[in-house]
């Protein structure tokens, strides 16, 4: 799918003339590499949205949230910057994305290298980007484990040997109900010799806050005192500072071989919470502990491309290090467990006096990701074409989360910590290996068939410590430790698990050309997500889950190159769904929840009724439902009754734990709207010695549920549908650009995610026992933002 007209080629050294800019607006040629070959978007027989450099600039795309709104098949939930989880085509179970839970179902790539870490993708500032490609549906054969439901690829502009040029931009904006934001960004492309070029990019962006942390107090029944947050009350306290740089070299060794090393890094510091709290006014929360994240990452990447005979070879390798330091409020856990169950009685000091049971979290998460891929392609103009290769990836997540209660008695403090009531310190390692290949054969001049496969292996482990001291709990934490390897900074080891698996994925496709710029295609493909570890000792590892995709589609060019119309219809069968939720002690549990079926349609239209005038429309409809009863205790029969063989021994197990029905067959899958759409209208004309334009955009996201489970879904409530309207106008003259814009014109409060601080049945307070009721947090889209942007090309 194509968002709006425009080419996605490398920039010329000379600034374009007004005539060249007008011609560029009439182009419908975007080149993509989704199938590991350079192809025209309209010649690729898959559902793909591609947003080129010009469209990214025109649509004021700065971050993930901006381009996510433009992809109809994509949905997401977010707790704030760097904390988004991405879904395609309704493949979402409401998982909480905990550090020891399932891997993402959508892969994100920066150029040729994967950048999806265990808890989600990087929130990269979008500037000097050649295009963003969003590939809907399983991409398992070419992209592997992290592309079960789809893939997002961010392709940077590469160093260019053609000449010295660059660009700088400055932006200032005002957020309604908030403060002032600003951005400075620029790049320079410089040939060093006739075979070496350097491209350096830098940016600094300040996003103003708009959530107010209002003053208030909580009364703890056991402690018998009131705790105030007056020292932390602040307006517009969720501001963000993002800065980073990218440097790349293009080295032509000879006419056949090119080496492109690249170094890229970013720092994103976010303050406060990005959710409004139930029971308060819009854009208000009441937090009692400091909240912030400091997300820093650095990626070193190397791409080598060349020819051996008639084979094109590519090596793509990278090393990514990401460090996230965070501090978070966790007072809801302390308050509700005291108000409902009297747990405040366990919080006293060394003298035996009750203390403030207020809890907060300090986290230290380190990610290391190494990947290597070697692949080859045969010439694209031959009747038989082949792409194949090998892939290896190893990613580690060093997890440290300190749940702190100040002045806690030494009896209850977790050993090796100063005042922790709970410590999580674990090392998670996920390893993936794959051999892949696809062969395409032109049966006739019109008919092409493609068959592909991937052999995969995964090997995932989790080791370390989690829990309380042995004086606080006789079952979890230190009390559950055993002999084994011990991580630094832990009192002992109570989790040391490993799970492995392998298998085969396939993709079959038939494409029939209907003539110039028109085709129909059919695809049968499969994607997977590796199995993993349940850290609770009584639970077994969870199995891999799979998606089987049946899809037919057409891509049609309109007469006289006035645009195109693309449509895809599909059914996805999702088996052995990995569902994660908070269980006892707030621990994430992952169960294979049965099967789901998703039926949907995606379509987009690009139409140019007159010179300089273009209309773009895109939509997706997904009907996603559970096909089996989901039981608290999984069993092959999906039987939620008591008289079942739960342990496979042949004996009926009527244990003390009731096998509760959590969600019946037919339950709608969460987090994805049935209907999502976007539209764009743009008109450009010659004016004032340059090229002027006006533009209007609309994106709509329908209503969504938050959780698959019936009871919990009722506590969360429904996330209502919302629409965002954007307007912009600008002038491009003599290498200068001027744009004025407004995003979210009608100041909508669209909700992208909801959450509780602890288990829903506790922090949701379903029986209304506490004075304040349940505390639900809703992450909302950014309020109306009005800005002006000035740029200079040289």
Describe the structure in your own words.
The chain is mainly beta. It has a single domain, classed as Maltoporin, Chain A (Beta Barrel). Helix content is 6%, strand content 51%. It is built from seven helices and 44 strands. The chain has a 22-stranded antiparallel β-barrel. The longest helix has 11 residues, at 331-341. Mean pLDDT is 90; it is low at 1-23 and 645-656.
Say what the CATH topology is: Maltoporin, Chain A
Spatial separation of the terminal alpha carbons: 32 Å
How many domains, in number, for the residues?
Answer: 1
CATH superfamily: TonB-dependent receptor, beta-barrel domain
Counting DSSP E segments of at least 2 residues, the number of strands comes to 44
Structural key phrases:
794 residues, mainly beta, 22-stranded antiparallel β-barrel
Explain the layout of strands and helices.
Blueprint: H1 18-26, E1 31-32, E2 39-40, E3 48-52, H2 53-58, H3 64-68, E4 74-78, E5 84-88, E6 106-110, E7 113-114, E8 116-117, E9 120-121, E10 129-136, H4 140-143, E11 150-156, E12 165-175, E13 180-191, E14 196-207, E15 212-213, E16 217-220, E17 225-228, E18 240-252, E19 258-271, E20 275-277, E21 284-285, E22 292-308, E23 311-329, H5 331-341, E24 360-377, E25 384-404, E26 420-442, E27 447-467, E28 495-515, E29 518-529, E30 545-557, E31 563-575, E32 578-582, E33 588-592, E34 596-610, E35 613-626, E36 630-631, E37 661-663, E38 675-687, E39 690-701, H6 710-716, E40 722-733, E41 736-743, E42 751-755, H7 760-763, E43 777-780, E44 785-793
Parallel strand pairs: 6-11, 15-21
Antiparallel strand pairs: 1-2, 3-10, 4-5, 6-7, 8-9, 10-11, 12-13, 12-44, 13-14, 14-18, 16-17, 18-19, 19-22, 20-43, 22-23, 23-24, 24-25, 25-26, 26-27, 27-28, 28-29, 29-30, 30-31, 31-34, 32-33, 34-35, 35-38, 36-37, 38-39, 39-40, 40-41, 41-44, 42-43
């Amino acid at each position: 799918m194509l968002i709006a007209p425009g080419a996605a080629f490398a920039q010329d050294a000379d600034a374009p003339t007004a005539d060249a800019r007008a011609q560029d607006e009439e182009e419908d040629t975007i080149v993509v590499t989704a199938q590991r070959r350079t192809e025209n978007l309209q010649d690729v027989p898959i559902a793909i949205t591609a947003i080129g450099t010009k469209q990214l600039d025109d649509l004021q795309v700065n971050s993930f949230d901006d381009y996510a709104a433009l992809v109809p098949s994509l949905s997401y939930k977010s707790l704030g910057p760097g904390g988004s989880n991405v879904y395609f085509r309704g493949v979402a179970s409401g998982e909480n994305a905990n550090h020891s839970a399932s891997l993402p179902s959508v892969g994100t790539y920066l150029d040729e290298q994967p950048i999806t870490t265990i808890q989600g993708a990087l929130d990269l500032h979008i500037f000097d980007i050649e295009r963003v490609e969003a590939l809907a549906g399983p991409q398992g054969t070419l992209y592997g484990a992290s592309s079960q439901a789809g893939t997002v690829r961010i392709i940077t502009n590469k160093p260019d040997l053609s000449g010295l040029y660059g660009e700088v931009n400055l932006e200032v904006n005002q957020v309604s109900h908030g403060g002032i934001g600003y951005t400075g960004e620029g790049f320079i492309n410089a040939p060093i010799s006739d075979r070496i070029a350097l491209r350096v990019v830098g940016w600094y962006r300040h996003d103003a806050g708009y959530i107010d942390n209002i003053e208030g107090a909580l009364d703890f029944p056991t402690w018998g005192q009131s705790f105030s947050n007056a020292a932390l009350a602040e307006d517009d306290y969720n501001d963000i500072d993002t800065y980073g740089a990218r440097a790349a070299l293009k080295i032509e060794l000879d006419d056949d071989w090119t080496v492109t090393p690249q170094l890229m890094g970013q720092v994103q510091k976010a303050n406060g919470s990005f959710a409004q709290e139930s029971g308060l006014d819009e854009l208000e929360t009441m937090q009692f502990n400091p909240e912030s994240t400091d997300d820093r990452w650095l990626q070193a990447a190397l791409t080598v491309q060349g020819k051996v005979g008639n084979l094109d070879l590519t090596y793509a390798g990278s090393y990514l290090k990401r460090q996230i330091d965070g501090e978070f409020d966790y007072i809801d856990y302390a308050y509700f467990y005291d108000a409902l169950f009297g747990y405040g009685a366990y919080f006293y000091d060394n003298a035996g006096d009750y203390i403030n049971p207020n809890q907060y979290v300090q986290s230290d998460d380190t990610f290391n990701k190494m990947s290597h891929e070697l692949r080859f392609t045969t010439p694209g103009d031959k009747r038989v074409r082949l792409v194949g290769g090998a892939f290896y990836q190893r990613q580690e997540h060093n997890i440290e989360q300190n749940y702190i209660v100040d002045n806690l008695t030494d009896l209850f403090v977790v050993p090796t910590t100063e005042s922790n009531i709970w410590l999580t310190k674990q090392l998670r390692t996920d390893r993936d290996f794959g051999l892949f290949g696809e062969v395409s054969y032109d049966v006739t001049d019109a008919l092409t068939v493609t068959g592909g496969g991937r052999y995969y292996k995964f090997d995932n482990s989790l080791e370390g410590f989690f829990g309380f001291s042995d004086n606080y709990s006789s079952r979890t934490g230190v009390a559950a430790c055993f002999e084994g390897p011990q991580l630094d900074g832990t009192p002992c080891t109570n989790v040391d698990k490993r799970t492995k698996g392998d298998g085969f994925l396939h993709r079959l496709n038939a494409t029939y050309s209907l003539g110039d710029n028109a085709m129909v295609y059919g695809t049968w493909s499969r994607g997977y997500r590796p199995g993993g570890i349940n850290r609770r000792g009584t639970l077994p590892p969870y199995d891999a889950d799979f998606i089987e995709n049946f899809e037919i589609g057409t891509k049609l060019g309109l007469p006289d190159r006035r645009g195109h119309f693309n449509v895809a219809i599909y059914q996805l069968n999702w088996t052995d769904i990995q569902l994660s939720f908070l269980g006892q002690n707030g621990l994430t549990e992952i169960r294979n929840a049965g099967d789901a079926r998703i039926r949907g349609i995606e379509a987009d239209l690009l139409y140019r009724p007159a010179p300089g005038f273009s209309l773009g429309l895109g939509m997706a409809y997904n009907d996603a439902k559970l096909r089996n009863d989901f039981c608290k205790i999984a069993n092959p029969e999906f039987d939620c009754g008591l008289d079942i063989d739960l342990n496979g021994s042949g004996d009926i197990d009527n244990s003390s734990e009731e096998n509760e029905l959590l969600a019946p067959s037919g339950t709608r899958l969460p987090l994805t709207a049935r209907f999502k759409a976007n539209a764009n209208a743009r008109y450009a004309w010659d004016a004032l010695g340059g090229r002027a334009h006006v533009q209007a955009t609309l994106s709509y996201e329908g209503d969504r549920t938050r959780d698959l489970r019936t009871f919990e879904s009722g506590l969360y409530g429904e996330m209502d549908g919302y629409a965002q309207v954007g307007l912009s106008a600008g002038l491009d003259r003599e290498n200068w650009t001027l744009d004025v814009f407004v995003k979210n014109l009608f100041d909508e409060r669209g909700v992208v995610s909801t959450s509780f601080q602890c288990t829903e049945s506790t922090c949701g307070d379903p029986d209304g026992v506490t004075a304040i009721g349940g505390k639900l947090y809703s992450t909302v889209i950014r309020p109306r933002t009005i800005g002006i942007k000035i740029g200079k090309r040289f």
